[in-house]
What we know:
Layout: E1 4-9, E2 20-23, E3 37-41, E4 48-57, E5 71-72, H1 81-94, H2 98-105, E6 113-120, H3 126-133, E7 138-140, H4 148-159, E8 163-170, E9 176-183, H5 187-195, H6 202-213, E10 219-220, H7 221-228, H8 232-240, E11 244-251, H9 275-289, E12 295-300, H10 306-319, E13 323-327, H11 335-345, E14 349-352, H12 358-369, E15 375-378, E16 390-396, H13 413-424, E17 428-432, H14 437-445, E18 449-453, E19 465-469, H15 470-477, H16 484-496, E20 499-503, E21 512-515, E22 532-534, E23 539-541, E24 548-550, E25 563-566, H17 570-580, E26 586-589, H18 599-608, E27 614-617, E28 630-635, H19 649-661, E29 672-677, H20 683-689, H21 693-707, E30 714-722, H22 725-742, E31 748-760, E32 763-772, H23 778-788, E33 798-803
Parallel strand pairs: 12-17, 12-18, 13-15, 13-16, 14-15, 16-17, 19-29, 20-27, 20-28, 26-27, 28-29
Antiparallel strand pairs: 1-2, 1-4, 3-4, 3-5, 6-7, 6-8, 9-10, 9-11, 21-25, 22-23, 23-24, 30-32, 30-33, 31-32
Helix pairs in contact: 1-2, 5-6, 6-8, 9-10, 19-20, 20-21, 22-23
The structure holds a DNA duplex.
Amino acid sequence: MVELAQVVVDVPTMQTNRPYTYQVPVLLEQQLQVGTRVVVPFGNGHRQVQGFVVGFTDGTDYQGKLKPIQAVMDLQPVVNRELLELSKWLADQTYSFWIACLYTMLPNLLKGKAHRIVRVVDELAEQDYYDLFAGRDFRDYADFENQPEAIARLLKLKRAGKVRFDYQVENRAKAKTITGIRPRLDFEALEDARTSLHPNAHAQNRLLSYLQSIIGRTVVQKQAEQQTGISAATINQGVKKGWLEKVPVEVYRTPQADDRLPDDHHLEAPLQLNADQQRAVDAIGAQVHSRQATTFLLQGVTGSGKTEVYLQAIAQALAEGRTALMLVPEISLTPQIVNRFRRRFGSQVAVLHSGLANGEQYDEWRRIERGEAKVVVGARSAVFAPLKQLGLIILDEEHESSYKQDEAPRYHAREVAKWRGRYHGAPVVLGSATPSLESRARALKGRYQFLRLPHRVNRQPLPPIQVVDMRPEIKRRGESNFSLPLLTALNDRLSRGEQSILMLNRRGFSSFMMCRDCGTVLKCPNCDISLTLHMDTRTMKCHYCGHEEPIPQVCPHCHSRHIRYYGTGTEKVQAELEQLLPQARIIRMDVDTTRRKGMHEKLLRQFGDHQADVLLGTQMIAKGLDFPNVTLVGVLNADTGLGLPDFRASERTFDLLSQVSGRAGRADKAGQVIIQTFNPDHYAIQDAQHHDYDRFFYQEMSLRRQASYPPYYYTVRLMASHPEEQEAARAMAEIKTLLEQRLAPQTIVLGPTPRAIARMKRRYYYQIVIKYKQDPALHKTLQEIMQKTQSRGFKDVQVSIDPDPQYFM
DNA sequence: AGCACGCCGACT
DNA sequence: GTCGGCGTGCTC
């Protein structure tokens, strides 16, 4: 009985979203395993694609002739049984392609690159040969991109049988190697060589005795040269004479390890815990020990020592011979936490996030896969780290929306973590100072085990928060981003040599160009949204599609010269601040100043070294920063997020304000927080002012209950887009009819409505929001919709389904 | 996705 | 008549 392989191919469409059956050539039988990548022929012609072996079978219903697998790309499976199962579950839960889920779990380099090669197979006309192939007999098809005439000529030649298209899947995953040297002779033979040397050949003599000292070992050539002073030239001579050979040595591309970190023999000792921390560590440790997949909610105020609880719980998992996963929202923003883990656990720590270079990402992944790294610190996608024997999973700042991926597959790391916890019998700890309403509600219901750290470790009170009503300020002093109290406080810090952080809440706000005569706002030609002014590049940019154009001198509509920019951008605030406080040194941090790799860390280091007095930035500065010299935190516009049409607007505002407040007075100096707002009476702002999470929680819960929103209801968002607005609307109307036929009567279907940004990238968007408590028909119906929208009735309609969406705009 | 097949209008 | 446009269906 011949075994056949089931392969999921890299063709992300609904029609091909299932395994295909292939023959296994005898030569490949040994290497082929479930979870290895393969190259398979697919479709007509000579097309080949990458695929994953997901199983073996001995028969198939398929009537046609089975094709053989062409090549095996991996010596070892790249997806183990757990992750294969997880990928299947993920595809089902998020209504996405299995192949897309597999790639999401793996480092980028494991996505093969498909090359189309155009090969000359028959005599060509002189002109064609010269123009298209420049004297060679093959070219990469990609070279002809953006040359439609050339492509047309190639297709013609193909039809005439003069050229052929070949396919090649390139395996981009390669280990980095450096040169090592290894003796080829034994001690006596090297000794013989030495005695027959010319007496003047001192260098070679030294080389030979060095080789004698490293018999049976391989040494990195660079190291050998440094240690012994022997030159590369001498080593090359030795190779020629057959004394030694050069061999490639595999090395890991390790991401920015801080050189001040200790080696594994001088690791930092655990800190003394207070009673609350100890109780938390004990509770988690007990579940690690008994392998219970309990979910904990660890709610601790800023500065309550959550991280130390994590570290000690992880140490327990390691002591039990298990591994641990630590997730943080945006790791590139928190280098401090990575360093803290490295100081405690040394080289057992691997770091995994999308900011790494592909090579680094791949190498960290392999260290984990091989069991060399036992603790993984990483962002969202690190939840798929191939750790075996997982003993503990931690999600810090569990309320952060960045744990939800906002493109397909739209998974939430929290749910994946719980799945893996169940698989391994590992507890999951959700940590936050301001838990999501969903998590806190589950903790109260007993679905999660609730742990609290109500006290700060240093026993310092939380900093006082002053709320400044901007309405009278504006009346008194005119348009300004700075109220008098804030300005006074800034001046005060400046004279005392202390530092300040200023945050501009830019959500839903940016600087746009408007004509003062006719009111025309400069808009993106592809999207239904105004263009944003970027002074650094002196262009107008669309934040949605990337469209860019020069800053207009006159209004494109009425040709008036009175075209100005409005809105509050960080640049504009910086300019105003420079005028008000000319002596202050300011560092601005936003998407523009941190675009370049490493700029983030650089700016933060500069601020930490007190090379500036004020750090001015957007949301990105709110998280995890810990600068002892910062005693003032100002929020310039606390409420720009409140007006958004999103039921989580208040929650986000409360989280953000609580978060930034924690940045002031972390060490022995007392801190102060000033929040400027036009809504001083809003409960989100008031409760943040009084550090009162509970009050906010109950208030917000009652609103959610009234409006039937999470955590009382679950939500799903469906989106459809089409280049023609009516087509998008029509498709959605049809989907709505289907939903109403199938779903339970208690389920609420809202819409279809045009999205807040109705047009993006030349497509019109409509959405439907489903709210439900329990609906046995929902899952099947949504799958049916994904199928149905492939048919001709939905030509050019793109439909996406977002379970538990984080944003509704 | 990428390709072949097949139907239709526009051209040497 | 044939060339090439695009809509349709299939890929183990």
